[in-house]
Amino acid sequence: MKKIEAFIRHEAFEPIRAELLDKGFPSLSILEAKGSGRQKGIVERYRGSTLTVNVRPKLKLEVVVEDKDKGLVVETILKHARTGEVGDGKIFVIPVEEAIRIRTGEDGEPVLQAHSEEEIPTG
Amino acid sequence: MKKRLLIAGPVAAIASLALPGAAFGATPILDTPDASINAMWVIVAGCLVMFMQAGFLLLEVGFSRAKNAGAGVAKILVNFSIASLCYWAVGFALAFGGLGEIAGTHGFFLDVGSSIEQAGKSIPFVETYSISPAAFMFFQFVFCAVSLAIVWGATLERIKFSAYVIYAILFSAVIYPILSHWIFGGGWLQVNIGMQDFAGSTVVHLIGATGALAALLLLGPRVGKYGPDGKPRAIPGHSMPLVGLGVLILWLGWFGFNPGSTLGAIGGRFAEVVVVTNLAAAAGVVAAVSIMYLKTRTIDIGMAGNGAIAGLVAITAPSGYVEYWAAPIIGAVAGGIVVYGVLAIEKLIDDPVGALSAHGLAGIWGTLSCGIFTSPRLAELNAVGDPGLWYSGSFSQLWAQALGVAVAFGCVFTVSYAIFFLIKKTIGLRVSAEEEDAGLDISEHGMYGYPEQFIPQPEYSTGLQLGGAPVPSGATATAAAVSPMSTTDSK
Q: Nearest C-alpha of chain A: how many angstroms from B106?
């Protein structure tokens, strides 16, 4: 099992979510993150005083999938999150030891994503 | 003929309001239609000025960070209430209870009788202006409350609540009443020096800002205001829409503040004062925004608000003394003063709302501007001082104004500094660093102004049936995650 953590632009999330759902990966989380990289901060002006905000708002996308699905998810993220400009973000892939579904208590790879086509909600 | 009927109708209607008392055998409080109309206008104007408390509240809350948003509510309510009681009990008598040079001595607890003739023995102005003593007291009280509110705007986000209570009592019972007696109530600055201050650029605004300066010098800046290099950093307030609403409510309130200071509606002078007031405020905004744009190439939201307040503060003293053409000049200069004032003061003193510039510097300018622009006809109408430099070519009125400003600043600063010094040495003026960091809402008031920001909320569980319902795993997580971010292209 692998956990894919991607720091992406806000506007990249919706196309990634739609395509992952399409391909059978409805389970994911996002967190609002602030971070810095090669992209410069934002200068705010406030009644004559300036304030440089050195961290930019990004989204952190987290998806846990079976090892075999890792490439597919990474490609989907790359496809939609890349603009070619500084600030597109980074993807990290991390090994996961265990996965347990709280509702049923079952564990292992079957709990990661939806089992079958009919369980995947449209939208 | 028709016109006369139109006027007679409302006059009769208002007069009849005063009469039912007679039907029950009591003496009518106001026995002429003029006195009733004056009372009506002054109470309406006083209510507009009272509403300025809401303006100060929103302005200050908007300029605070979210962790200090609730503190402003308690502050305004408690200060207004303390001032209500103290001014009625003591302050009004010191301010208007007689024509002594230093202070009045009659009318404590407004115990002066209800009729104008009776009350006039204790409160001479009631007779001069033919106005109900209750209306006059209420109108003067709301001015005191405005002045007190100005003191606290600059002390946001770090002052102890207990400091408010002590200073508010002394300010509304003694400091403000004595100074307002000198300049409004027939005291030495008004009568002997001929200082002109129609509605209080000095009495209300400069005095409030002077109290704020004394507090700020002892209070120090907010943590994080100045970087290691000593340069000021912006600490942006959490809501510019609240600031904007606050400024507009203050602007509205000013149509009671200045025009109400005619203390009567007969003759219609108050309508001219409305126009003068509005022109100055507008010029203040245009000037402040333009100068900031030239300096920084941005349309500064906070400074637009400060420009409006500065224009209004500056026109407060001259509003009853100048012609229309002078108002935009006075307002525009004030707009310029507030920009350079905020930028200069920011380097040394942390004033989160810009009160020292918008109320202090603009108040000084407004008071001095009487000495330049006061027109001969209006100096005569108000029977205070002489025409300004523009008309008379004489500096005498300008000197009178400058002396008044210096005396008011000097006295209020000395007394206020002493009070805040004693507060600092005894109970302390400032919250601890930890309390400041956590925010005054939780540390002083035990709750958050915006609880949802700090306390997790349960999700709304429509469609999520707990206990083995056929809900596809992962579906709820996706649906919940999408809503705040989703763009319109979702399928």
A: 46
